[in-house]
Write a structure and sequence with these properties.
9 helices; 539 residues; 8-stranded mixed beta sheet; 27 strands; 4-stranded antiparallel beta sheet; single chain; alpha+beta
Amino acid sequence: MMKAAGFQVVTWTVNTTDDMTKLLKAGVNGIISDRPDLLYQAVAAFDANGDGKPGDYLTPAGLIDIAKFDAQGHRGGRNQRPENTLPAFEVALDNLMTTIETDTGITKDGVSIIKHDPYIEAVKCRRVDGQPYAFADERLIKDLTQAEIQSTFICDKIFRGADQKNDLALSPVSVALANSKGYISPYVMPTTQDMFDLVTAYIDHYSNGAGKAHPDAPKRVENAKHVRFNIETKLNPRSDKDSHGNTYKDRTVGYVQMADTLAGVIVANKMENRADIQSFDFRTLFHVQQKFPAIRTAFLFGDFPIYAGPDSDDGTNMQDEAGKNTPWMNGLPWPYRQTAASNPFRAKRSGGFEGMALSADGTKLYPLLELPLAGHDDKTLLINEFDLAKRQYTGNRYLYKLDAKGTNIGDYIMFNGEEGIVIERDPSQGDMTGFKKLFKIRLGKAGDYVEKRELVNLMAIKDPDGISGAAANGDIGLGATFAMPFNTIEDIAILDERTLLIMDDNNYPFSVGRHVGSKMPDDNEFVVIKLPEPLKMAK
């Protein structure tokens, strides 16, 4: 359903080849996985077109074609290396992931650093000096500088199974980069800049360095040159407290600083076309869209509620806060979710805004419903007034009464401050007794029914010059009296005060209104009509 609506579907997180293959067969656009090795294998083995030959999502060079599928290494590759570290990113590159998925916070000295959580967690990190470091000792990233973090902690703990390894021999590029930067370990918490530098070092290692002889060196170089980055801003704006007793919103810097800092690193590295910023915090994303429009944003929705129970989470981001909306959603009011049971749909299927007239002065829009609302008068349509400058409805509403034979409208256009033209029709097609007319309307007083009079009967248009030609092969509505026997007459254009252009959308191949004899789908028709009297056009 999501794909049918035009959305890309990238699933999170999938870690077995069986599940990956099922999702590939279901047609997802991408998979985020903790196991980059298994994900590449599944994609490489997938036969998308069913011809018995795998590899339909691969390029001729054996890389995953991101135009066909997005393979994302989750936190680098956290089931193979300790998460969100240089070695974790290196294993994602080794397994030719199209995208590295990761997370960021901001240090005390304003550096964008890679970390999923606001705390330096004891389950993932240890102190360099060997001093005990348990849950009660956990420090917030925002309270420490980059230097303090990277000189005090090493995040190399393994706890996610036998496939997770911290053997430095498996991460030669990370080791070399850490040495060049003077880090105490490749497993120090890396900055966002370190991640970008790792990719550069990785390309050099397999192009000119010791990795040049590796059998997959050409693939690794080419993939790393185009790898993307999906970077999440990690903050929680709720006002309740976490398990440490700290208020969620006070655990990190604010969203503006976090967004500006991360975006600044992306821009400085000229990665705008390769880096996405994702977040559950919609304030962050709105800010990025306004200030850094070249960087793509991804809006995340999560249902991780806070409740009195053993698996209580952090309230991301669909949970209310004391019955009200939280800052997560940047002003979207609670309740965020509605169902047909609690709030029944009033707009009928295919009954939303079908006509939308622009006022003559260009300041207002007048959207007109195609069908009456459920539970409302079944012959009344609503026209609402929308202020373009204020980006909000004015509260003015006008009523449109359908003809006894009319069921819906096809378009609405205005030609002066109050007057416009509406296409009104019934659902018939291929029926010469059908109802298809143009009406001229005047808005009048808000709250009242608009004035309305017939302008053109589209089923009885005079054609004295025989422009439409003679009927043949069972076609109808041609000849001296021309007709438009369609259920998809959907557009009006005013060419001048006495000339209209009426357009039928053929809804190919489902509409058969003209070619009833041959049953062939309708053509798109553009019909020019001369009016007997001129319209009073706005000056």
